[in-house]
Amino acid sequence: QDNGVYGFDLGTTLAHLLKEICTIPRDFMVRVGMANPKYILPMIDELIAAFKHPKVYRFLHVPLQSGSDHVLVDMQRGYSAEDYRTIIKKFRKEIPGITVSTDVICGFPTETKRDFEKTINIIKETRPDVINISKFWPMPGTPAGRMKQIDGAERNKRTKELVELHKKIGLENNKRWIGWEGDVLFTERGKSGTWKGRNFAYKQVVVESDFGAGFEASVKITNVGLHDLRGEVMP
């Protein structure tokens, strides 16, 4: 499930794989899935170079899980909050407009209120477009499952706070796309005579039209929601 470890058993890397894929003389787009910070950092320059290729969606999925280093140690994540911060800053500097996705767990057993505040603060700082939020739930037989658990009401409260922050940041980020014009590859039929597609940054774009999957069209964004951009097909 971690694309960052690709090639470790073959003497190669994800960055090299992308470079090779992009030499295929066909018209296609590649979306790179999740990769953990500890595997991105050793190849970050090569990976950024690969992401700049026009056949690769400008979409980066890097999990944070917690803004607290001691919680990350307890989770056995193998990276720090600063590692996450460094990756996001460097990718955004080199690839403006890149879409950033992350994952956060709320209510891990050793997460204090101060730890959760650190998570909130780094989310406010890095402003990811997508946050996959999970409320911690103890799995039987795991080390975390044997720990003293945080009160369920407190877990719910922290999760709700992060969800509301995500809604605010996600909508603000999407509003920056209003007025953008560019090509969109449509792949999925939506509701009520609409089609869904993706632009170069893997942003979901919805238009009222009926042209079929696999159709590429120029679109102007006129409105946005939390999860999509809404636009009109250009003549």
Describe the structure.
With 235 residues, the chain is α/β, with parallel strands linked by helices. The protein is 33% helix and 22% strand. The chain is built from 7 helices and 8 strands. Strands 4-5-6-8-7 form a 5-stranded mixed barrel. Strands 1-2-3 form a 3-stranded parallel sheet, covered by helices on one side. It is globular. The protein starts with 13 loop residues before the first helix and ends with a strand.
Please tag this protein with its features.
alpha/beta, 8 strands, 7 helices, globular
Mean pLDDT: 96
Distance between the termini: 41 Å
Structural class comes to alpha/beta
Largest sheet: 5 strands, mixed, barrel
Radius of gyration from the alpha-carbon trace, in angstroms: 19 Å
DSSP summary: helix tally: 7
Shape: globular
Please bin the fraction of helical residues.
Answer: 25-40%
- Biggest sheet, strands in spatial order? 4-5-6-8-7
- The helix/strand series, from N terminus to C terminus, equals HHHEHHEHEHEEEEE
Low-confidence stretches: none
Please tally the β strands and state the result.
8
Strand content: 15-25%
Briefly summarize what is shown.
The chain has 235 residues and is an alpha/beta fold. It is built from 7 helices and 8 strands, in the order αααβααβαβαβββββ.
